[in-house]
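Subject: sequence -> structure tokens, single chain

Hey, anyone have a minute? Need the predicted structure for the following. Not urgent.
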Amino acid sequence: MHYFALLLGPEPTTPPSPAEMAAEMAAYQDFHQRVASSIRAGDALTPPSTAVRISGGPDAPVITEGPFAEAAEVAGGYYVFEADDLDEALAIARGIPAAEYGAVEVWPMIDWRTPARAVANDWLALLLEAPQDAVAPGTAEWDNCTRQHEEFGRTAGDHVLGGAALDLPSTATTVRVRDGKVSLTDGPFAEGTEVASGFYLLTAADRDEAVKLASLIPASTVEVRQLAGVSGL
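Reply:
Had a minute. Here:
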């Protein structure tokens, strides 16, 4: 099975020092070496100040530029893991450096579309919904959503590099590690909080084109973030 891991952490108030950046990079390189056989994709994200959120759906998109002050934790990166089951995926996630100062949300994925080429400075379009609006796989509502996403795929064409739907919030687990102790919190999440429902990896000439593409995605909210292109995955 494939699992999506969204890396969350506090928004830095000051830029990290060169020594802090080097230590962080070394920690991630060590993590990659230990679990390389399980990683299928992943990268850091550029700062939230460069992010764009699109709400209102394709028919009446409303575009808001970051940063988003209301967020206590912001997305700093993502991974796609292949694991035998959720327990194995969580064991992998607890080794991610971000879990030691922030959190890692782990979601079972549905119909992972592997990128046809290496992903570099491309774009992550993260689909967000209120937990109570989540649609269960196998339902008529799910089938209708699938048809809408298939139509988006035809419209976006080769701009879609990969992506997947995520299972219900009740299947997600948040991983935190503090002083070597692992804390696991199961979904669903607090009412009123938007949670991930899927994602796309998009290729675009610039942010304007990425936002234009993302505005066509059938979702309540889409957050567009550029990949840092530092993982080599």
